[in-house]
Design brief:
Length: 117
């Protein structure tokens, strides 16, 4: 079923994605599966663009589908950890706002505050 509305809540996505997690996995196995899956999907996305050096045209729609698969594994990892995807998203934006209060700044990127990871 295709989602037809413009806004799709991160936690709804996470819940919808969790429907297709293997229920026989332990939480540790789920986290391992998600980690390996994220790396695999990033490899697939890289492969789309690596082929441009061999004369292929990049396929943005293929990349978009692989990015969706990557997001599924991110959601699976969050589920395995007992985290809400929206909390991880908010944490990341808070970190970026603190690091770059006026938007990206190469100087602030090179000279981060102690403890800024």
């Amino acid at each position: 079923m295709e989602i037809t509305y413009d806004k799709y809540d991160a936690n709804v996505y996470q819940s919808d994605a969790a429907r297709t997690i293997n229920p026989e996995l332990t939480r540790d196995e789920m986290a391992q599966h998600a980690t390996l899956g994220m790396v695999s999907e990033i490899g697939e996305i890289c492969g789309i663009y690596q082929k441009t050096f061999q004369g292929h045209e990049p396929d943005p729609e293929h990349a978009k589908r692989e990015l969706g698969d990557l997001l599924w594994f991110v959601a699976e990892y969050c589920t395995a950890q007992g985290w809400k995807l929206s909390d991880v998203m908010r944490l990341n934006i808070s970190k970026l706002r603190a690091r770059y209060p006026q938007g990206f700044d190469p100087e602030r990127s090179r000279h981060r505050a102690q403890g800024d990871v």
